[in-house]
Design a protein that fits this description.
- The protein is mainly alpha-helical and about 250 residues long.
- Among the domains are: about 80 residues; about 90 residues, DNA polymerase, domain 1 (Orthogonal Bundle).
């Protein structure tokens, strides 16, 4: 009967229901707390893993920053070296340009001097041409003889005696008697109207050289500077003097 009274007591029933609700709430809270604590651990693990990854990435980024800084330093040194080389090249280019300017000025000065000398030479050459033309006009046509001939006395010689004295056969006005004149050269002189010793003695040395140079060949190598002196001795009959002079020429040859 007591229990029935208790069960019929609404206050007690309400208290019991309240207690059940409170206990249920507590149990539910404990359950939720337990469940939440497990999620937090999971999240904490995930956050820890993420943190480790971030640390690794941060370390990698630091390494990259360090490498970039190192590369930047190398680039800075390379830039400084290039600046130094560029400055040296600029100085070299400046020096070369200055050198070229000096050479150009020197070339201009030398060219001006050369042009002046060339003009002077041309002026002198023009004067020489005029003088040569005047000389050509004054020369007798077809003859190499001087206007005033040196007339030597006629000498009658014993050519047998002269031949023995000179050691070779001698005939009158034989041009081959002159040392340096052979048969071909004698024929060349005769073709220019030089037939006798006297005529040979009166031909200027320059005219003789012109005859030989015009003939060319071996004639150009001959020296006619002593022909006239020998011709004077031969035409004057100075045979002993001629022999001594010819021996001197042979020794000098």
């Amino acid at each position: 009967m007591v229990w029935l009274n208790i069960l019929n007591n609404e206050s007690l029933i309400l208290a019991a229901e309240t207690l059940v609700i409170v206990l249920g709430s507590m149990l539910l809270g404990i359950l939720l707390s337990y469940l939440n604590s497990g999620g937090i651990k999971t999240k904490l693990a995930d956050l820890t893993l993420t943190l480790e990854q971030e640390k690794k990435e941060t370390a990698a980024l630091r390494d990259q920053v360090s490498q970039v800084s190192h590369d930047r330093g190398d680039l800075q040194h390379a830039i400084e070296d290039l600046k130094i080389k560029t400055a040296e090249q600029a100085r070299t280019i400046y020096d070369q340009r200055h050198f070229l300017q000096l050479r150009e000025e020197e070339y201009k000065n030398q060219k001006a001097t050369f042009d002046g000398l060339h003009a002077t030479i041309a002026s002198y050459q023009h004067r020489i041409d005029i003088i040569q033309q005047e000389l050509e006009k004054q020369k007798p046509s077809g003859s190499y003889h001087q206007k005033e001939m040196i007339v030597m006395p006629k000498v009658t010689a014993n050519f047998d005696h002269v031949s023995r004295l000179l050691g070779k056969e001698v005939t009158d006005n034989d041009l081959t008697l002159i040392t340096g004149i052979g048969p071909k050269t004698a024929a060349l002189l005769q073709s220019h109207d030089i037939q006798t010793w006297e005529e040979l003695a009166n031909v200027p040395v320059d005219d003789l050289r012109k005859i030989l140079n015009d003939a060319g060949g071996i004639y150009k190598s001959q020296d006619p500077s002593h022909w006239a002196k020998q011709a004077v001795m031969a035409a004057s009959g100075e045979w002993r003097k001629l022999r001594v002079y010819q021996e001197t020429l042979r020794k000098q040859a």
